[in-house]
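stage 2 :: seqdesign
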């Protein structure tokens, strides 16, 4: 068994190694042709990186032991840290590398607002204010009525003022499966280029996994021209109601469509794609 602790040239490395293994010894380029034992070393102990790589490659286990501050740090950058982390990340998929969690950055992704309801095919409603329907009973929302008509469970990935990019992220990280139906209300965007890219990423996922993907326009947007060419795009805003309201009725906030309009949305989507 060959175990190697890797860190800086200062005394902290020896202290960490010998705390776990009192017999751990320093290994350098002069004595690195070993096959077993417990050692500690650093990039500074090798004149040629290829010899350090060969040692790490032979090792059965590695320990990453960073100091508080790397000894060669200049203007916030340490070459020794960069190369040591490169080796640890390279080898962590090939052998045990202890303390690797100190290198792994967990992205601060937004939580998924809903989750899969069943192992069978289901409906996913995705979107912004209209789909979120925060001022309506759940049963009055177009998503619930469409799922009921299709006799499938429903998950809703929506929130007020959600952008296309946020919606795409929710879809791409959800547990979508073959046979699912995704109906996506396209609304606002952060940046048009990233929004268009996001829609095509979801399109690619739908094609790979045999998912029915439908885009719907349920509120006024100057961005329709960017999305109207998408397959299965269905623009419903302004198709009912009056010129001033574009809705049959409104919810309690008087800003968004009410139950009758949601019922009409669900009926129209069902007739166009499922009847």
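stage 2 :: out
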């Amino acid at each position: 068994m060959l175990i190697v602790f890797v860190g800086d040239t200062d005394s902290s490395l020896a202290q960490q190694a010998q705390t776990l293994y009192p017999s751990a010894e320093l290994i350098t380029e002069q004595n690195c042709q070993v096959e077993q034992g417990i050692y500690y070393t650093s990039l500074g102990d090798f004149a040629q990186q290829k010899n350090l790589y060969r040692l790490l490659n032979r090792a059965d286990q590695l320990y990453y032991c960073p100091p508080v501050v790397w000894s060669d740090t200049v203007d916030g950058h340490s070459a020794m840290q960069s190369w040591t982390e490169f080796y640890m990340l390279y080898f962590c998929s090939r052998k045990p590398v202890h303390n690797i969690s100190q290198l792994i950055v967990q992205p601060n992704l937004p939580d998924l607002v809903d989750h899969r309801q069943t192992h069978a095919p289901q409906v996913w409603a995705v979107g912004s204010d209209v789909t979120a329907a925060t001022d309506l009973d759940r049963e009055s929302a177009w998503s619930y009525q469409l799922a009921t008509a299709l006799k499938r469970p429903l998950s809703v990935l929506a929130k007020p003022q959600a952008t296309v990019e946020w919606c795409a992220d929710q879809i791409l990280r959800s547990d979508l499966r073959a046979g699912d139906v995704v109906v996506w209300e396209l609304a606002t965007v952060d940046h048009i280029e990233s929004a268009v890219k996001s829609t095509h990423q979801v399109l690619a996922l739908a094609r790979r996994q045999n998912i029915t993907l439908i885009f719907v326009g349920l509120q006024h947007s100057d961005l329709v021209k960017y999305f109207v060419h998408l397959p299965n795009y269905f623009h419903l805003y302004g198709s009912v109601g009056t010129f001033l309201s574009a809705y049959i009725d409104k919810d309690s906030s008087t800003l968004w469509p009410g139950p009758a309009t949601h019922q009409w949305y669900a009926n129209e989507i069902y007739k166009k794609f499922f009847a």
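stage 3 :: structure notes
- The chain has two domains: 2-102, 123-273.
- The first helix runs from residue 11 to 20.
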